[in-house]
């Protein structure tokens, strides 16, 4: 009886997930799939696996064959042990694992023979590629090319040889940025996307993911027990790179996982088509990046010394379409029946400053932003990434901040993959009621006092505070921070420069960190540090010399020495 009750409770939880709420009928009627899943232990991959297992549990409850999942991991034994402990033996009955090495496994034969030996192949086989490496590794100079390009390319060609029915690829919105070709991560991802587009037979779905965050743990792009970009909002003063106007479209990671799992579990022939992202780019024109931008007239969008034909809106629409044309891979017209690319981004477009303010409010803090130059941030991140905040991310932020018209994705088709009534989680939904009238404090209200337009965010009424989803509040991870510094000691000098710039700019204004002053600031700071070290060393040397002289003169330890007796 207890086991039956526990099973019913588990199924109620499964049926309460958005994947089953919106797509249960489609999942019931789909053919059971063999799914090869890479990156199953990652921030996104672990949640994709959970969503697939939810669908398997649902099909089992109906007496249907659930299908199976083959996990591709560099340490399959340890991974399976952790997953069995987390999900239980019954739930993991349809899962097995095999060892792969994305760093070295780059030939078609090894992938084809490994997947084929596992019994994978045919139209019901699906490869979900979520493995990625966002930053370089000192011990492997070509690691980013190996993981993001060479290994997926070999695996995709092997899947085509084995006549797989579908390939699901995780990419990034960064492939559309102006500096995409200059940044290793986005360059290799873009090359992988183009290579997949050139395959003749394999149906491919590419998810160009935005910035992922978790509404439950309140972190961005990784586990919550390590340093995270969100932690910068927990500091007394928060350094903001550049002018803070780089646009972001944060996407809740569970929303992404459920839609990727849905694509893997269902028939690729039923996938919708996303034709263009120009609509969202048009919508972004009206968002408030700074000051009174939202109040600009449409005529102000016309560049100087230009003579556009037709209306300004037509001209801008054409420019946006052209940008998205060059930002996407050119594919054979015949490939349109088997190729899909979706903007897997969140429903809200906000600047970096707005994002950090939102996370500060969600954690019960007030953000004190300090706008600093990219120089010191990039110097620190060249030594070691600060969690998910890495050199690649900073370069792309800088690119989009300086772009005349930043690339903005259109999530409409991606949002409705599960069904016409499905929706994506919005960050403002995580803001909790904080007054007697149950008014939500929205980002628009937060920014209104700073001359920001609140037209992009509406003040929402709620029936009860408990109905709102809350993001877990974080405390600054002090111990992980010192561990990070200890393991990456070369960040001390550039980190000190960044701290000096942040504090000095906060106290004395932006002029403090200007180029003409920066040499003197660093010289004075380093002189002060070296002087303190020298003074401390001299004092310690004097005390040791005094002690030694007393010992030599009396032939015995002075009173109180040695401290532990003897």
In short:
By secondary structure, this protein is an alpha/beta fold. The protein is built from 18 helices and 14 strands.
Describe this structure as you would to a colleague:
- This protein is an alpha/beta fold and 566 residues long.
- The protein is 43% helix and 10% strand.
- It is globular, with a radius of gyration of 27 Å.
- 40% of the residues are buried.
- Mean pLDDT is 77; it is low at 277-324 and 432-468.
Mean pLDDT: 77
Oligomer: single chain
Strand content: 5-15%
Head-to-tail CA distance between termini: 70 Å
Look at the helices and sheets and give the structural class. Answer: alpha/beta
Strand order of the largest sheet: 3-2-1-4-5-6-12
Describe the global form. globular
Q: Helix tally?
A: 18
Biggest β-sheet, characterized? Answer: 7 strands, parallel
**What's the gyration radius in Å?**
27 Å
Number of strands: 14
Overall helicity: 40-55%
Low-confidence stretches: 277-324, 432-468
List the keywords:
566 residues; seven-stranded parallel sheet; three-stranded mixed sheet; 18 helices; 10% strand; globular
Helices and strands in order, then pairings?
Elements: H1 2-15, H2 18-29, E1 34-38, H3 45-61, E2 68-73, H4 76-87, E3 95-99, H5 108-117, E4 125-129, H6 143-161, E5 166-172, H7 184-198, E6 204-209, E7 212-214, E8 219-220, E9 238-241, E10 247-248, E11 251-252, H8 253-265, H9 278-285, H10 312-327, E12 339-344, E13 350-351, H11 352-362, E14 369-372, H12 374-383, H13 391-402, H14 412-415, H15 443-448, H16 478-487, H17 492-508, H18 515-554
Parallel strand pairs: 1-2, 1-4, 2-3, 4-5, 5-6, 6-12, 7-11, 9-14
Antiparallel strand pairs: 7-8, 10-13
């Amino acid at each position: 009886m207890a086991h039956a009750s526990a099973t019913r409770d588990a199924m109620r939880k499964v049926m309460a997930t958005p994947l089953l709420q919106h797509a249960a009928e489609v999942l019931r009627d789909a053919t059971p799939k063999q799914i090869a899943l890479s990156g199953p232990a990652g921030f996104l991959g672990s949640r994709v696996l959970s969503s697939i297992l939810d669908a398997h549990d649902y099909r089992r409850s109906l007496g249907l064959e659930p299908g199976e999942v083959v996990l591709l991991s560099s340490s399959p034994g340890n991974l399976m042990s952790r997953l069995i402990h987390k999900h239980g033996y019954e739930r993991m009955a349809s899962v097995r694992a095999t060892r792969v090495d994305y760093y070295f496994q780059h030939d078609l034969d090894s992938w084809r023979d490994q997947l084929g030996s596992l019994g994978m192949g045919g139209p019901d086989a699906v490869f979900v590629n979520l493995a990625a490496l966002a930053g370089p590794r000192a011990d492997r100079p070509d690691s980013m090319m190996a993981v993001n390009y060479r290994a997926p390319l070999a695996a995709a060609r092997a899947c085509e040889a084995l006549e797989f029915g579908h390939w699901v690829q995780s990419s990034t919105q960064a492939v559309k940025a102006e500096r995409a070709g200059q940044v290793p991560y986005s360059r290799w991802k873009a090359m992988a996307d183009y290579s997949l587009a050139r395959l003749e037979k394999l149906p491919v779905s590419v998810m160009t993911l935005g910035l992922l965050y978790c509404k439950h743990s309140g972190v961005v792009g990784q586990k919550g027990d390590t340093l995270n970009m969100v932690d910068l909002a927990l500091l007394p003063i928060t350094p903001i790179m550049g002018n803070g106007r780089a646009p972001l479209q944060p996407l809740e990671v569970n929303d992404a996982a459920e839609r990727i799992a849905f694509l893997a579990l269902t028939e690729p022939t039923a996938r919708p088509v996303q034709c263009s992202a120009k609509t969202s780019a048009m919508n972004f024109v009206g968002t408030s990046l700074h000051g009174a931008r939202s109040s600009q007239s449409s005529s102000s969008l016309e560049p100087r010394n230009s003579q556009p034909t037709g209306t300004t809106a037509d001209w801008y629409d054409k420019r946006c379409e052209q940008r998205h044309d060059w930002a996407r891979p050119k594919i054979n017209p015949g490939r349109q029946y088997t190729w899909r690319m979706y903007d897997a981004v969140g429903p809200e477009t906000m600047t970096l400053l707005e994002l950090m303010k939102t996370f500060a409010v969600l954690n019960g803090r007030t953000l004190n932003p300090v706008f600093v130059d990219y120089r010191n941030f990039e110097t620190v991140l060249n030594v070691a990434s600060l969690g998910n905040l890495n050199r690649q991310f900073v370069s792309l932020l800088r690119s989009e901040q300086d772009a005349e018209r930043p690339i903005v994705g259109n999530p409409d088709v991606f949002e409705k993959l599960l069904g016409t009534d499905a929706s994506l989680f919005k960050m403002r939904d995580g803001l909790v009621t904080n007054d007697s009238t149950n008014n939500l404090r929205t980002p628009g209200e937060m920014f209104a006092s700073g001359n920001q337009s609140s037209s992009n965010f509406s003040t929402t009424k709620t029936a009860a505070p408990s109905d709102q989803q809350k993001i877990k509040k974080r405390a600054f991870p002090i111990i992980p921070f010192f561990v990070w510094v200890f393991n990456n000691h070369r960040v001390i000098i550039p980190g000190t420069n960044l701290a000096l710039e942040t504090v000095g700019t906060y106290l004395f204004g932006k002029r403090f960190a200007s180029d003409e002053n920066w040499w003197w600031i660093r010289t004075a700071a380093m002189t002060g540090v070296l002087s303190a070290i020298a003074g401390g060393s001299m004092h310690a040397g004097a005390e040791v010399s005094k002690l030694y002289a007393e010992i030599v003169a009396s032939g015995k330890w002075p009173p109180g020495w040695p401290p532990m007796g003897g």
